[in-house]
């Protein structure tokens, strides 16, 4: 029996909202916006007080354009209300918690009701369908399982699609390659840098992954040239997936088969582009900071969340037929946060780690590279008179202490290199702390 | 008699030794003896000059990280077994050698000068004295 989504890229009924006429979509958006603003106003003290300060009530939202009147939510709001301050549901209704790294070592906690998880699975199914995946696909899910939203988000989406999900999580390259070959894997979800690493290793071991067809790559920025390299070397089709834990996890946006920008699942996440300095909403097509409002979230509705991701909205109709607007692929952020191996890192966290060991903050520089497909982080630290010892073992021990302190805060292994004083670039005003050499 | 040794932090890359050496040379400061400890990433240049305070200021003003450490110049017999005798005295006193190097310029008359770094220089001087091992005076070496 032939079913709805048997042919790759075929129609799946769950994807119907992807193709709604714009007016109809906007009606749903407005209705959901009014409802979610009401929920946040009634149940989240921070949103309530911020709206009161501006003389706003949920009734102030009469049109979609009125969203611009509403106050922003920023990442520090999540930190300041740690752990549960922005929840709009009692714990009895919350069925899942996830967490991601924050700016001070305290994580940011996000919550889901069962309905939220259902929405998450739904948008993930729509994302996978847009990548041409269907029932019968064997998905190797190499995103990390755990507090990170990547693993479980892709997992439940894959299952809800009706595909076969292998919850292998990250790491253990040899086993990944064995499974890829022996289980006849047709699709893989992981970070693009990890996939490159798998490719390199597969060459050495002559692994046959000719059944592999699709890759759904996210959780870190990657360039078009990296896509070309992945596709040329593996023969698969590589899709960019966008998401962030604060909003839901992976599944906020996806590249369809056209792969000319990422469709945002606008019936659940309302996108705006604002000037990152002034907060003014920018006209369609202009580049600025992506701001997202969760239209259907129950446990943790976020109104006008500043993602810090820089992109532009594309509203021309996509050749795939979806009416959902697209964002351009994200290449940079409006703050100095960077993402490495799926972990959000702020230079201030590295500073905290250095301060803990040295007592004063030395000059330092973070260098991001991609070696054999894996993202590497090196921290160059200038030696100060206070910490300099004439004994090699004391210097090596300092190096190890710095590495341990950073790993302790970030949960990432990094390499610390001691350098001579005044050798790291100083600039006027704000120091350039991060050098990203990862473009492949 | 303890000596003030200067140490410099250097990255392990070509050319790093030249800058401090040239700076000292321009100011007429003679390196009496030196030793370079290195790892794959960095090195520490340890050296002794007649006026350590002046050299320290010079290098510090040039932006280098300098450290002063007390070291002990020990006289050993310049023939097989000479160094071993001094080391035996140190070991018997329960003291550890952090590092050591040769002070060739000061070695004469069948004696060799060896610079030792001990964790506790005073205890080491006392132990060596008790064992009859001679410590150089500063005047002998820094002329």
Question: How would you sum up this structure, described in words?
Answer:
The complex is a heterodimer of chains A (440) and B (143). With 440 residues, chain A is α/β, with parallel strands linked by helices. Chain A has 2 domains: 13-334, ANL, N-terminal domain (Rossmann fold, 3-Layer(aba) Sandwich); 343-436, ANL, C-terminal domain (GMP Synthetase, Chain A, domain 3, 2-Layer Sandwich), CATH 3.30.300.30. Helices cover 30% and strands 24% of the residues of chain A. Chain A has helices at 22-43, 45-53, 75-80, 114-130, 149-161, 173-182, 192-205, 224-234, 347-358, 392-410; strands at residues 94-100, 108-113, 138-141, 164-166, 187-190, 214-217, 237-244, 249-254, 262-264, 269-274, 287-294, 305-314, 326-327, 332-333, 338-340, 343-345, 364-371, 374-382, 415-419, 434-436. Chain A is globular. The model of chain A has no long low-confidence stretch (mean pLDDT 90). Chain B has 2 domains: 3-69, 2-Layer Sandwich (VC0802-like), CATH 3.30.2130.10; 70-142, VC0802-like, CATH 3.30.2130. Chain B is globular and about 45 Å long. With 143 residues, chain B is of the alpha+beta class. In chain B, strands 2-3-1-4-6-5 form a 6-stranded antiparallel sheet, with helices on both faces. The interface between A and B is medium-sized, with 18 and 22 residues.
